[in-house]
Amino acid sequence: MECRATWNDETIAVSDKCILTEGNLYFPPDSVKHEFLRQSDKQYTCRWKGQAGYFDLVVNGKVNKDAAWYYYAPSEAAMSIKDYVAFDKSLGVKMEGEASNRLYSPWEKELEAHARR
Question: What is the CA radius of gyration of the chain?
């Protein structure tokens, strides 16, 4: 199924190869319109996914600060989302569709194993 990210009346990304992890859709790098992305100074390190960088969205003269992120140096467990781009739904980026793949966090795996007992 196709996934789509939109903001400020523009489609930012479209793909049928998104990966879902921890409630976020990650879009393959080649499915994102990079002309709408501007590198941010913000960095983040996730305990299990690795090191992430952020993008501001810049669309039709409006800026949505730190509204997208990607893992440029993922951990071994998260290599499948290397350079994939996710968008912050709480900042008004609309997400539609379902992921074709799923990457489970260590916590999700633990909860799933516990539920099966």
Answer: 14
Closest C-alpha among 23, 32, 30, 29 to residue 4? 32
Burial code (b: 16+ CB inside 10 Å, e: under 16) for 73-107 equals ebeeebeebeebbbbbeeeebebeeebeeebebee
Structural domains for the chain: 3-116 (2.170.150.40)
Q: Model confidence over 75-103: pLDDT tens digits? A: 999 999 999 999 998 766 676 777 777 77
Long-range Cβ pairs for the range 39-44 (8 Å, 24+): 40/65, 40/66, 42/66, 44/69
